[in-house]
Design a protein that fits this description.
This protein is mainly α and 121 residues long. It has a domain at 3-78: Winged helix-like DNA-binding domain superfamily/Winged helix DNA-binding domain (Arc Repressor Mutant, subunit A, Orthogonal Bundle). Helix content is 58%, strand content 12%. A 3-stranded antiparallel β-sheet has the order 1-3-2. Strand 2 and strand 3 form a beta hairpin. The two termini are 26 Å apart.
Length: 121
Amino acid sequence: METKEASKIFEALSSDVRLDLFRLLVKNAPDGLVAGDIAKHLDIPSTNLSFHLKAIVQSGLVDVEREGRFMRYKASIPLMLDIVAYLTDECCANDPEQCQRYRNASHVEPGILPDKPSCSD
């Protein structure tokens, strides 16, 4: 992943509403949700939701499909995992033991972050 693409993703998630929206779609993966259901879950007006959906779809984090007269929004789980990998790929590259200590000290459940040969020794 390139820095420019990562920046676009982080910009899309910099809004509380878009972050909640993305997490809701991740929770409802792989089926996603139609816009009306998203608005109900997030308790926001559909006009406000449209603005946020447009921004997050443009980032690539969310895909949209037409279902008759409805639009179904789905989180791009592979892209989400790519951005996590981008952030953690070079963690303490010169000190794998320190990387493992950071992982152990975090609130992330074991097995969530991918094991790297340098961090699992």
